[in-house]
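**Archive record**
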Amino acid sequence: MNHALQLGETNPAAANLVWSQVDRKATDLSPIITLFNPKLVDFVSERLHGCQYNPQAGFLWDEAWIR
């Protein structure tokens, strides 16, 4: 990686080839491959309003209210 960084300053095309080799090596050494994205299901009441979901934070409790 250091070689690719240094090479990028003088020869970007050659650096791209080195980066592709680094990427291939990291991919080949990776222990797992994600085959699916799990989905979460929320069961809510008709009384619940303002129900919002954020992919990173999950259910946004401060946005929800019950009538």
The CA atoms of residues 19 and 25 lie 10 Å apart. The radius of gyration is 23 Å.
